[in-house]
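anyone seen this seq b4? input:
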Amino acid sequence: MVNHTESFDSVPQELVELLTAELPYSLPLLRRLQFTKFPHGTSEHARVIFISATELSSKPDVYTAAYLDFSRSGTQMFVYSTLEHPRNGYDPSTDEVYKEQVAELVGKVISLRKEYGRELLFTNPERILVGTLHSKIRSILETFEGRVESRPSGLFDKWLMKRDELPVLGDDLPPGMEWGSASLDDCRIICARTDIPRTPQVKNSIVYPVTRS
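predicted toks r here
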């Protein structure tokens, strides 16, 4: 199958509409695209990639899309593919379709990496960090020898919960504890005790509520 690979330097509204129709499974990529509207939410180097048998304007049912920004020191790429949606289940007839789309995605990332031409800011400058990657996409990527390196921590579960079904806890804490903001030293402790690929400086740039006793 011949795929159309499109690259955009801004977020196409057609893609937002496609991803919205795929909720909640498309949430990681959709939220990342929505964050581009906020100050410092994106950069001039960011690209949106769309791969399908037809162009995005035709709103296809089968596609793979990604947000990529080599200039970020944190997560640099988010991916969503309709392969992830439960309606597709396990259908061997579509295996090659998605393998080709993911291969096209890898090829496009390599091309854009050469175009970017600068040193990457991730903790491993020879790699980019792909966030919230679905296990089906990861399985395809792992077949591309030498291109993908899995983190030793393995797979993580991702839980999606409806907000109106969560318990209301309020702001009260046990006696002797209080709310505060994470300091750089707090972030150093977090990095030392976890396998999260973030530097203390990057973590400290994000507002984390913490409890202190």
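Residues 178-212 form one domain. The chain is about 30% helix and 15% strand. kinda curious what u guys think
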